[in-house]
Amino acid sequence: MRTLTLQSPAKINLMLAITGRRADGFHDLVSVVAPLAWGDTLVVEEVAAANHERSAFTLTCDDPGVPIDQANLILKAAEAFRAATGWLGGARFALTKRIPVGAGLGGGSSNAATALRALNTLAATPLDAVELARLAASVGSDCALFLHDGPVVMRGRGDRVEPLPERAAARLRGRGLLVFKPAFAISTAWAYGRLVAAAPGGYATATAAEERLARWMDVAGDRSRDPIAELVFNNMESAAFAKFPALPLMLERLLREFGLATGMSGSGSACFAFLPDDAPVAEICAAVRRAWGESAFVIQTHLQ
Ligand SMILES: C[C@@](CO)(OP(=O)(O)O)[C@H](O)COP(=O)(O)OP(=O)(O)OC[C@H]1O[C@@H](n2ccc(N)nc2=O)[C@H](O)[C@@H]1O
Ligand SMILES: Nc1ncnc2c1ncn2[C@@H]1O[C@H](COP(=O)(O)OP(=O)(O)O)[C@@H](O)[C@H]1O
């Protein structure tokens, strides 16, 4: 039986414009998202179907805080895969969790997409790319982006995903950054709920979002400039920053003391700072830990 070991990366929303609520209750958005060169590891051990009976999907995880029952997006994705393909095989999933939960780093969605990629490799009659993307989107709004290995633009409720044009992607790939998260998490449902409560005040217009993206793509090929800070935008920050002032205080401090461009990822609470080559990384990490305590999560990585 085959065993696959796959990386399941975290993501950062470099630009996140939530543009309004849809009839189905979800929100439309325009987002530039990039996977990080860091994340969880998923080992997938194939279990053959015996006597034309279905074999089970099971999950273990080294982090006791992560559910390992049907609430886990890995098992949801696996069952969705079976329903879509009729595949009778099973799998033992073993997840090594590094991505903090409720951070806006897309850990659960990434795990689900990674599970789908694994099962599609194991299945005798795999889904094509369009079918796999549709299936991923049915598991979670943020899942489909993780079927790509580089920066993408995500639209709709997150289900319409296209790779960034190469010239723009090249400006992001390999870019160093620090990702840091305080001890508290923020629930995605809460963050969208705050936008609904403030509607229509908190929404960005789709036109302004597309213009921001187009402006950045226009100058992205100009090597004499580094316009990354002009791309960074997130209208989920208002609610999170109002409730948790530790977040904006930290970002202001990193700009003031180290001149760093920063932002919050997704619904938070993780934030990121771009690291120039000569950045005093140890000093920056120390500043984060001094303010947020030793329980703060800090990782130095780069965009994939
Ligand atoms: C905000 C974002 C930005 O990338 O990321 P995270 O902060 O969660 O990482 C995503 O839109 C999160 O996507 P995801 O976490 O997959 O959301 P889902 O599981 O589908 O839905 C969780 C909750 O968010 C709401 N939701 C989600 C996506 C969307 N486009 N509109 C919504 O209103 C749903 O109504 C639901 O209450
Ligand atoms: N494989 C998984 N890894 C982490 N969380 C998961 C997973 N499957 C389901 N969840 C649940 O998803 C919720 C959000 O998790 P996560 O994807 O890490 O956050 P975020 O949406 O902020 O990026 C949590 O309530 C968690 O219990």
Automatic annotation (TrEMBL):
GO BP, one annotated term: isopentenyl diphosphate biosynthetic process, methylerythritol 4-phosphate pathway
Pathway: Isoprenoid biosynthesis; isopentenyl diphosphate biosynthesis via DXP pathway; isopentenyl diphosphate from 1-deoxy-D-xylulose 5-phosphate: step 3/6
Domain GHMP kinase N-terminal intervals: 72-148
EC class name: transferase
Function noted in UniProt: Catalyzes the phosphorylation of the position 2 hydroxy group of 4-diphosphocytidyl-2C-methyl-D-erythritol.
HAMAP family: IspE
Name of the featured protein: 4-diphosphocytidyl-2-C-methyl-D-erythritol kinase
UniProt source species: Opitutus terrae (strain DSM 11246 / JCM 15787 / PB90-1)
